[in-house]
Amino acid sequence: MIYPYKILHRIFFGGILANIKTINLLKSAVLVGAALLLTINLSVASTTKNGFDLTNALVAKDKIILGGPQRDGIQAIDKPVFVSGKQATFLKPDDRVLGLISNKQAKAYPIAILNYHEIVNDNVGGDKIAVTYCPLCGSGIAYRSVVGGKNLIFGVSGLLYNSALLLYDRQTESLWSQIMGKAISGPMKGIKLETVQLTYTTWRDWLRRYPDTLALSTKTGFPRDYSKEPYAGYEQSGRLWFPVNFRAKGYHPKERVIGIEINEEFKAYPFAELSKTSGEIKDSVNGKKLLIRFDSHNQTGSVFDEVGNELQSITTFWFAWYTFHNNTEVYRRP
CA of 171: how far to CAs of 58, 70, 146, in Å? Predict the structure, then answer.
């Protein structure tokens, strides 16, 4: 039995304490009450992480884990500064970038900067776009940030799901899975973001294609030495830092793949397989004819339909693609 405060008060001050049985009963009541409070506190804690409410989350709450930093411990770039390609002398030809085009404006986002910030809230050719990068998954994905008429500004939650970045929007504090492209908790739960195609390539390649491109400057407003690699050795290691639901076999966990979805069917094109081709392969997924172009020199590739339109795809580590799409097909050179 759990005793309310008024009953305990009467026990203490009603002269009944002389009865040893009552004392024992009181002790039991206090212990039970304390246990109940602890249970309630643990229950609340289990539905809240880094200050985010995980009640009725779309994924298992125990699979949402702390990545280390607290909310905004990794600081998104909200006021990006860009320079022309000629002014981007801090970039070397082989430096990796994420390239984006919107309304004929081209921009490059160096991986060296994204490693430290993971999100750039930007305006590209008049479109509000969030450029995101998860260093743990090697996944660069851009999303239109206007949802239901609201311009969402995204931050880094400090939480991970399947070792992958969980963003949050500052307007509703909903959590969004970067790779799923969907809100998994909060008022926006279940809503999907519209993807904007990114190109994962070298600065040399992107500048050759788009000589008028702008490049994200190292003048981010944060004291960071972007010449230093914060994840040095991670991509070469076969170890994962955080648990995932499904472990992939057949390739190095950090093998890069181009992943594509065609009407809820998934396929991965490992760079190791694409490097064996002459640069182009014809394939089909779910009955749709595809053309995959791969540049082994710059380690970059894109997917097109049969009439030449580029299709949405992402470049990421093999383990990350597989753990989110464990029923994926995999291209292997015959």
Answer: 20, 18, 12
pLDDT the model gives residue 37: 36
Is the separation of the CB atoms in 112 and 95 below 8 Å?
A: yes
Over the stretch 7-55, which tens digit does the pLDDT of each residue have? Answer: 223 322 333 333 434 334 334 443 334 333 333 333 444 689 999 999 9
| Distance from C-alpha of 138 to C-alpha of 133, rounded to nearest angstrom | 7
E strand or H helix at 7: helix 5-13
User: What is the C-alpha to C-alpha distance for residues 216 and 120, in angstroms, rounded to an integer?
Assistant: 9
- What is the average pLDDT value for the chain, to the nearest integer? 88
Query: 277 is written with which tokens?
Result: 């081709």
What type of residue is 322? Answer: Y
Residue 230 near residue 294, CB atoms below 8 Å: no
CA–CA distance, 137 with 165 (Å, rounded to integer): 8
Q: DSSP letter string over 184-219?
A: EESTTTTPBPPEE-EEEEEHHHHHHH-TT-EEE-S-
Encoding tokens for residue 152? 């969402």
User: Which residue is it, tokens 């504090």?
Assistant: 173
Q: What distance in Å separates the CA atoms of residue 291 and residue 279, rounded to the nearest whole number? A: 10
Query: Residue 261: phi, psi to the nearest 5?
Result: -120, 130
Average pLDDT over residues 61-82: 95
Closest to 282 (Cα-Cα) out of 334, 219, 211 = 334
Q: How far apart are CA 259 and CA 312, in angstroms?
A: 9
Which of 173, 13, 156, 193 lies closest to 71 in space, CA to CA?
Answer: 156
Rounded to whole angstroms, the Cα distance separating 109 from 113 reads 7
Q: Is 108 helix (H, G, I), strand (E, B) or coil?
A: strand
pTM of the model: 0.85
Of the candidates 267, 245, 264, 250, which has an alpha carbon nearest to the alpha carbon of residue 314?
Answer: 267
Residue type, 259: G
